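hey so u asked for the seq, here:
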Amino acid sequence: MNYQNILVEQQHPIATITINRPKKLNALNRETIQELHDAFSTLNADHAVKVIILTGSGEKAFVAGADISEFADFSVEEGGKLAAQGQELLFDYVQNLETPVIAAVNGFALGGGLELAMAAHFRIASDNAKMGLPEVSLGVIPGYGGTQRLPQLVGKGKAMEMIMTAAMIGAEEAKQCGLVNHVTTQEELLPLANKLAAKITRNSLVAIRGAIKAVNAKYIDGKNGYEVEIEEFGNCFGTDDFKEGTTAFLEKRQADFPGK
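ran it, structure tokens below
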């Protein structure tokens, strides 16, 4: 598939999506959001792809925010629709994707950019990365899940401070508060992402899908995360991956998971 705003590279079993709007610091517009949805959907359906790395082009920005020119004159109704459609099409979609997603934050991750990184299953960052939700400085609030995911990751108090001050934090502070898992140099960012992805690919993707579903259930109103965990745990016993994993353990060899 040909894309205008993103690049997709597949080196099975790892795929990399690069947001490629360098002149706009990789800002998200509607076309880019749609292309990202399409790319994630296509890769998730490809059973040869076991992990997806998401990053931005260049050394300045992961995603510097949303493309404000697209919605500066929106009405109340249009603003609400923009948030709802964006969350459904991309941000919630990525969070609930069966294929693990690692965000490799290579520079500015602001507004919608940080919200996109937070939708990934976990994040790593280069030491020059800057992260924040500056929306209130524009007279609006984060609308792509930022008010929900940031407190989950850094706690209510830190999230309130970041949102209300519209301030950016650096990579080391982001690591200290749990927003990112690892900090490395710009040059080592993608190698580290690939190293982590390779570790994931050695495990059962069927089990990982169940784990993603169970972890996410904790944050869904009306869902009992423990009940989902019990259900997904039980489901594992009916899989070929479980049979292979337990057999390999007993035979003291490396498991070769069939992925079903």
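The first strand starts at residue 6 and ends at 11. The radius of gyration is 19 Å.
lmk if thats what u needed
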